[in-house]
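Appendix C reproduces, verbatim, an entry submitted by the partner laboratory led by Prof. M.T., so that reviewers can inspect both the input and the predicted structure.
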Amino acid sequence: MSEPDIPVSQPRAWVEINLPNLIKNLAFAREISSCKIMAVVKAGAYGHGLEEISKTLEENEIAFLGVANIGEARRIREAGVSTPIYLLGASWDGEREEIVARNITPCISTVAEASAFNDIAKRRGVRLAVHLAVDTGMGRGGFLPEELPEKWAQLVNLESLIIEGIASHLSSSDEDEAFTFLQISAFEAAIESLGGLERFKWRHLSNSGGILGFPQGNCNLARPGLLLYGVSPIPSYQQKLHCVMSLKSRVTLVRTLPAGASVSYGRSFVTTKPTRVATIGIGYGDGYPRHVSGKGAEVLIRGKRHKLIGRVTMDQVMVALPDDSDVSVGDEVELFGPNISAREVATFADTITWEIFTGITPRVQRVYLRSSNEIAF
């Protein structure tokens, strides 16, 4: 006996990922940097969806995909993506066998790390491409510039490694111009201390802030992350970028509360007069930040902004409506997107846009728009 037909409901919380806008942002990164592109797709492509974003970027012929760990690299390969993958941070010994087996490019911070990779590659009968990491001021990994010449003599004797690249990372490209220039100078000096540009096929330093705010110097590879997803870490460039992710939900209930009614946990909001209140089916369990509570955050319904009232709960938020509002159950709600920026939400939550994007939880459905006029549902 066949199972009865069971309808599948539309989601009450979802994100729309605009892939044409992702491609536009990639084109802008290429235009402004003139470098080849390593697209940073760690943390689920900043919450946008690791596999779908990686496939779209591969179609646009990038040089590398940048990930945080071998698990992310594995998922990309299992999705059928063949673009070279670079590990942005140090790896530990429990990961290295798979890194070599999958031919993923690691960054190297110590001679011991390099030796371990060399031994695995030699045992497997392969040569592994690696990039040297240089710590010019980030402090989370890499060779110190002054120790590189001495270490270089040991590194070049590791015959199963191909030292094809050298990299560093800017710690304050959106905050501290003077220190960023010091990092750029230190990176250039490190390359010169090892014999100059011809030593390395790939030389990379700049994140999104570095691409937008600073000359690329002797680099030929850039690593945009946030920029690709439509947010500029340097506000003056924001109008050049296109929104990729929109967080949406639906109105689940509309009713009028009397004066003196409390809204949400802790009774932080109490009505002073009869008030129309809409309940929306999203909360911090979906990744909408609880810390926006009571700060003046707004949502968009039927083209108009409405303020949140009371605390954000795990599954629902509430907004106050004007008396003559035409908002009704089922209406679409924009929590952030083209009309309310993720940066605005981050400001109310006292955090950064990176955390807003990566905080969207798995229960929020990702809907991929592949043309500019496509409608999600």
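The first helix runs from residue 19 to 33. Additional entries are available on request from the coordinating office.
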